[in-house]
Amino acid sequence: MNPHQRKLVCVGDGAVGKTSLLIVFARGDFPRTYTPSVLDNHVVNIEVKGEAIELALWDTSAQGEFEDRLRPLVYPGSHVVLICFSIDYPESLDNVIERWVPEVKHFTRDIPHFLVGCKKDLRDNPDTVRVLANYGQAPVAYAQGEDIARTIGAVYLECSALTGEGVRELFLETTEMMDPKRANQPRRKSGCIAM
Prior knowledge:
Layout: E1 4-12, H1 18-27, E2 39-48, E3 51-60, H2 65-70, E4 80-86, H3 90-107, E5 113-118, H4 126-134, H5 142-152, E6 155-158, H6 167-177, E7 187-189, E8 192-194
């Protein structure tokens, strides 16, 4: 039996953990060096509720104007979007509201969105806590993530690509929420596709 194909798109600020999250799920190992991606994808075969799924994972970049023009090209055909931020970088949660939610809502409709707190292992890390305290900040609390998720109409999940905590559960839950009949389609305006 052929697996059902699904597409997951991952967005968020640079260096919040998107690439590591996808690599850990796809390959099972944590990348030890930071390699910024422009657009990258992996395909993973998983089983959810007895159904074989071929899950295409699309990694996007937020590093520059070039990537800002390319990123909208990955949204068509998507079944779910992960909007990622880093628990040790509070500004990345601010950017969820200011940048990522408007972009995702502009380019998608009728598909689930998940807010994902990455780098969960750093929330209680003494060095992280100390460095953020020097700037009058603290790691993002679970309740803060939940509040933002509720505000944007998303499901909230946290994970750590480094330790693997919550990674598999994240992808199983997102895959369960995908409706095969509701793949994102580009918005049409007067016969043209707006991208």
